[in-house]
Structures are given as structure tokens and as C-alpha cells.
């Protein structure tokens, strides 16, 4: 498979997963827990990096769920 087909398939898989009522609840929970809070932790670079890692996973999910006419 080429990369465009792979990306299209994985985006479809994410949409199928998160377009169910359960998936929407999970995404809302993840958004509440990891997206709307600050990653920065004063005086603790490791905690800041950890939190930003959590947030980046959610950002990937959100980006893959976006409609994209090119892929």
C-alpha cells in the first residue's frame, strides 16, 4: 500500500471508532482531561514534557478526524 492509501485507511478507522456514541464520549473525556489544560508545570520540565506528550496524542486524534479533501 502507498502512503496516501494507508493514511486514508487509518483516517477512516479513526472516524469509525470515534463516530459512535461511545467514541464521542471517550473523545470528550480525553479532550477534557488533556487538551484544555496547560502542559506547562512550573519548575518541572519532566512533568511539562509528560503532559505535552499526552496532549500531542489527542491532537493527533483530532487531526486525523478532520475532514481532508486531499487525502
Briefly summarize what is shown.
The chain is an all-alpha fold. The chain is 73% helix and 0% strand. It has one domain.
Head-to-tail CA distance between termini: 14 Å
Low-pLDDT runs of 5+ residues are none
The portion of residues forming beta strands comes to under 5%
Helix and strand sequence: HHH
Number of domains: 1
Shape: flat
| Mean pLDDT metric | 91
**Class from helix and strand fractions:** mainly alpha
Helix content: over 70%
Major β-sheet profile: none
How many strand units?
0
Radius of gyration (Å): 15 Å
* Number of helical stretches of at least 4 residues: 3
Polypeptide structure, described:
This protein is mostly helical and 71 residues long. It has one domain (3-65). The protein has 3 helices and no strands. The chain has helices spanning 3-18, 21-35, 45-65. Helix 2 packs antiparallel against helix 3. The radius of gyration is 15 Å and the shape is flat. The model has no long low-confidence stretch (mean pLDDT 91).
Keywords:
71 residues, mainly alpha, 0% strand
Topology:
Blueprint: H1 3-18, H2 21-35, H3 45-65
Amino acid at each position: 500500500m502507498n502512503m496516501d492509501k494507508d493514511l486514508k485507511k487509518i483516517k477512516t478507522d479513526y472516524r469509525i471508532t470515534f463516530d459512535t456514541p461511545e467514541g464521542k464520549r471517550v473523545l470528550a473525556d480525553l479532550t477534557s482531561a488533556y487538551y484544555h489544560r496547560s502542559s506547562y508545570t512550573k519548575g518541572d520540565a519532566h512533568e511539562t514534557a509528560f503532559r505535552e506528550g499526552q496532549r500531542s496524542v489527542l491532537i493527533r486524534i483530532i487531526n486525523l478526524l478532520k475532514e481532508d479533501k486531499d487525502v
